[in-house]
């Protein structure tokens, strides 16, 4: 299988800086990308496999454990909407400066694990002179992207096909970033938390035992697959890499459930609760693969969902990290 495959449909187009994308009317291929092949519609099924009435990727190398079907896509879209409502934008940091129009060079953005491509398409509308590329292991993004957007299939756990210093803004990996380029990541911590200073914050396992156990079991299963679940380490990793400056972090605590007295936060809390209910359903196959019985998983999820309904003060931490490549 090629390292990356282009799979979108589009009409003929030319970017504002004069860079032309060749198209055959169904799929387009940039002539400079010699290692990229087209993906025909008949090839789509081979990137998926069905198990337990859920659809998963078929990659033999990717450790990604969650389904890629419609229910999971709806969860990811709902979470994207929630984060946009939370921070009031599709990004934070000096993105407009990094992606400012340059008559001498077209800025290039890379979105890793683009999923449905919602985030990439929304930010691409704001910067029509910028080229946006999304890469994922399954073709679940739109096949009719904007003229300045393309989606490719590839496994980000393997070497990316682009040379070093290729991108101005990455969401989120580092090797192919240009000096001065912007790194941005946003991740929801898989743990329950409470406001610091309150008694539950010191011992969440006492005040939210079912939720604490649920996330412990999920994190153990992720760790078993070689996936580091501790998103709080991202900033330290960038600082220790020695190739980044201006590493900034921001943690936003979001209510879980409808306990908050402020209407807007109450609505966000209810939305996040619904997203976490979907997440709990999506991790069930992974937990079965980890050796847990169906009865144990069902009780684990049932108790977690019930606790979200009955635990005032419960929070989820959303970690935002941005850094500049030196």
From TrEMBL:
Pfam families, per the entry: Methyltransf_25
The biased composition feature labelled Polar residues covers: 1-20
Q: Which domain of life is it from?
A: Eukaryota
Which portions of the sequence form the region Disordered? 1-27
Segments forming domain Methyltransferase: 109-173
Q: What SUPFAM superfamilies does the record point to?
A: S-adenosyl-L-methionine-dependent methyltransferases (SSF53335)
Q: Report TM segments.
A: none
- This one is known as Methyltransferase domain-containing protein
Q: Which organism is it from?
A: Leucocoprinus birnbaumii
